[in-house]
């Protein structure tokens, strides 16, 4: 059984997306053309870092924001444009900047 949690943080990177998966002890990164492809890359990295899915907890974040990731990922899965997912990422950046003040 896994202990702790794994984070997968997605960040727009030009026309692509960068994803960083961390167990707290190990970190791996990947790039992909689109958020759905980045999520697939994250799944592969997660399986590499924590091959036993029993008890594994993964938290997906977009620029550190779980709600923004959920919004952007659902938009992408339902065929909305990459621009819509980038707008969700920009909104997450704005929200985190205001929260830091």
Describe this protein's structure.
- It is a single chain.
- Strand 2 (16-22) and strand 3 form a beta hairpin.
- The chain is of the alpha+beta class.
- The chain is built from three helices and four strands.
- The protein has helices at residues 35-49, 66-77, 82-100, and strands at 6-13, 16-22, 27-32, 58-62.
- Helix 2 (66-77) packs antiparallel against helix 3 (82-100).
- A four-stranded mixed β-sheet has the order 3-2-1-4.
Strands, helices and their partners?
Blueprint: E1 6-13, E2 16-22, E3 27-32, H1 35-49, E4 58-62, H2 66-77, H3 82-100
Parallel strand pairs: 1-4
Antiparallel strand pairs: 1-2, 2-3
Helix pairs in contact: 2-3
For the structure shown, list the relevant keywords.
single chain; 101 residues; alpha+beta; four-stranded mixed β-sheet; 3 helices; 26% strand
Briefly say what this structure is.
The chain is built from three helices and four strands. It has helices spanning 35-49, 66-77, 82-100, and strands at residues 6-13, 16-22, 27-32, 58-62.
